[in-house]
Amino acid sequence: MNDSRVAVRGVERVFASGGSSVQALGPIDLDVRDGEFLCIVGPSGCGKSTLLRVIAGLLSPSAGEVSLRSTSREAPLTSVVFQDYSIFPWKTVEANVRFGLDIAKIPATVSRERVSRWLTRLGLADFASAYPSTLSGGMRQRVSIARAFAVEPQILLMDEPFAALDAQLRQIMQAELLELWQEDRRTVIFITHNLDEAILLGDRVMVMSSRPGRVVAEFEVPFERPRSADIRRSSEFAELEGEIWDRLRSAMEPRSQVSA
After folding, report:
1. 25 and 56 both lie in a single domain
2. Do the domain assignments include residue 211?
3. What are the tens digits of pLDDT across the range 208-236?
């Protein structure tokens, strides 16, 4: 695809332990369009997070290759948001959000403006001097998201960022991320177990099989942009969720064989 921002070709990942090996992923082929919000769903243990880490360069593939197309010399290519927040407990909220900018040696005047903007945008301005231990789970995840957006990455990789939140807070964070993304339309790869979340946020939903994870289906999400959480109430939303669930269920192995 000429407009692919991410191209995955024949990627596999094998983990070795105690003289044996387990194929966790692939082979898998994947293209992500520039400015696309791609959601990936699949059974537990199917390799979704492994795939994301390979794309991020945190893991090397056992076979195949990943190509990321850069269009800027200044903006970092990727930034990752994990489920477990991955923020530094000994740094204040402000210092956590500024961390990636410090690593990139962004000038102080630019850094201060970006940090201030993202603290305000994610409702963290009043907590700039607070430490993570004093914050709720939802607030800590806001810090993680603010840090990822502050570096203005070309590709944002999100690994089940709302999985640890309660249902109500999760919906609030979904709506906030939807609004944030629709303002700049950067390329996003988003891992989730939640089909409702995938349809609300995504332009496309990719379904993976049980381990070793492979692509077994893809669904274009037909709802126009900008969209709001109100689309959940439509019959079309429920119908699409049912179709994806049917395909996901058929891709699963018997429960006793699925890795936790």
Report:
1. yes
2. yes
3. 999 899 999 999 999 999 999 999 999 99
Query: pLDDT digits over 61-102, tens only?
Result: 999 999 999 988 878 899 888 887 688 999 999 999 999 899
Same-domain check for residues 122 and 160: no
Place of tokens 């360069």: 57
Residue 163 domain-assigned (yes or no): yes
113 within some domain = yes
Can you say whether residue 123 is alpha, beta or left, with left for phi > 0 and alpha for psi between -120 and 50 degrees? left
3-state SS class at 173: helix
119 and 234: one domain?
A: no
| Verdict on whether the full-model pTM lies above 0.85 | yes
Report the DSSP pairing between strands 37-41 and 187-191: parallel
Residue 87 is encoded by which pair of tokens?
A: 């923020």
Q: Which residues form the domain of 60?
A: 4-71+154-252
> Could you tell me which of 182, 187, 202, 190 has the C-alpha nearest to residue 244?
202
**What pLDDT, on the 0 to 100 scale, is given for residue 257?**
43
The whole-number pLDDT of residue 187 equals 95
pLDDT digits (tens, 9 = 90+) for 141-190: 889 989 988 988 999 999 998 888 888 888 888 998 999 899 889 999 99
Residues 57 and 171 in one domain: yes
Contacts of 223 (CB under 8 A, 6+ apart): 199, 231, 236, 237
Of 101, 122, 153, the position where a domain reaches its end is 153
> E-assigned strands of 61-186?
63-68, 78-81, 155-159
Residues 228 and 248 in one domain: yes
Q: Give the residue among 193, 153, 182, 164 at the shortest CA–CA distance from 40.
A: 193
